[in-house]
Amino acid sequence: MPAKNIADWTLSDVSKWLSEVGHEKFVNLFLEHEIDGKVLLTLKEDDLKSKGLNIKKLGDVKRLYISIKQLQRDNMTVLFDLGYIDLFPSSNFYNHHKHDLPSTGLNTEGSIEHEFYSASVSEDGHASHLPPEIWKAFISLAYLFIVTWITAFVMVIVHDRVPDMKKYPPLPDIFLDNVPHIPWAFDMCEVTGTILFAIWLIVLIFHKYRFILLRRFFALSGTVFLLRCVTMLITSLSVPGAHLQCEPRTIVDDWSSSAYVDLYNKIAMAYVIWRGAGMSIQGVRTCGDYMFSGHTVALTMLNFFITEYTPTPLYFLHTFTWMINMFGIFFILAAHEHYSIDVFVAFYITSRLFLYYHTLANNQALMQRDSNRTRIWFPLFSFFESSVDGIVPNEYESPSLIICNLVCTGKDIWHLVRSSVCFRKSSRNVNVSVKNNTKKDR
């Protein structure tokens, strides 16, 4: 077929396509009705059965329509560009129920637009089906667990590669060169992070869809820190402040005798970093992990999740979390623990990734339109959000309801364990009785 847009197909191009897909007998019919690429893309099953085309055999209609349907699915973007399918045919799109969704001319049961709007959409775009899928939350936790271990190990490696402070002095930086070093600032940054984390825990405890929030938080945090591992390994920046005592570990020349010892030491140091969550108030001190700031990532991620999953009228809370975020960033720079570019890149990557993820999750039409691209570039999103069909509403549960749910869950687990134990005992008794009967028969 000609390597060009299907909207530009001529009558001869359509004839070639019919021959390639095994519908040669319809070539003359399509030529007679002047069906070019645009018309071909907009054909419906009713058009094939109409008096105009007059295809009499049902089998021919179905086989031809299947081929056209596949062509339409492969060229959805062209249909959007032609205006044949409108993403938002009404300015009040999300105020319609599923059965009230407007149409722009494709009203049959098998039409493309009908399928396009088949995703569940409730009032205000909120999801109509939100299963907790706790197992996905555990998978995302395992993903974050693995990434944090990789990050800790990479931090040990980059610490050994830190440039000599005498040979490579701190780089020029507008902020660091004009703001004096504050010794206690970095500890204050971690205190602000602890405050944000405590608020986020409270939101998780009372939010009705806490497991969806958890898997999103784990997936996004793991992805950002995985990107940070790459940037740390690629380029080693010089130490940003002269007050930092950063020296690589001494490495024994006899590689054969020290290889396993060195690996063990690296793993042990990585465990110390991982156990302390990379926080200086936990006794963790590292160098070389500058591009980009992990503390800024944590502050920004917590801030965005708190503001996203708390009600909009809580202006005081949202303002407070943003202030905490900004103060935390200021303390990082005031401590001269990171360059300004480290903080800027960390804030930008974290915020953009958060917004990109939630834009796709809250607008399923966009996700469906770019589904192939989403699977390739954002596989975690495709997996974790496969059962979410809209915006997650900010609904909360009372403490009494949470306790009741925990008690019910505990009872269910107890009954499940008890029934499994009883089943095992009964199966053992049956086996013993069968053995005794066989012995008696002998």
From TrEMBL:
Biological process terms in GO annotation: ceramide biosynthetic process
Coiled-coil region list: none
Localization of this protein: Membrane
Membrane topology: Multi-pass membrane protein
Ranges annotated as spanning the membrane: 141-162, 182-205, 217-239, 290-307, 314-333, 339-357
Gene3D superfamilies (alphabetical): Transcription Factor, Ets-1
GO MF term set: ceramide cholinephosphotransferase activity; sphingomyelin synthase activity
SAM domain residues: 9-74
Domain of life: Eukaryota
Keyword annotations from UniProtKB, A to Z: Lipid metabolism, Membrane, Sphingolipid metabolism, Transferase, Transmembrane, Transmembrane helix
Statement: the UniProt record of this protein carries the keyword Membrane: yes
Listed GO CC annotations: endoplasmic reticulum membrane; Golgi membrane; plasma membrane
Family: Belongs to the sphingomyelin synthase family.
PANTHER family reported for this sequence: SPHINGOMYELIN SYNTHASE-RELATED PROTEIN 1, SPHINGOMYELIN SYNTHETASE
Name the record gives this protein: Sphingomyelin synthase-related 1
Organism: Dufourea novaeangliae
Biological classification of the source: Eukaryota, Metazoa, Ecdysozoa, Arthropoda, Hexapoda
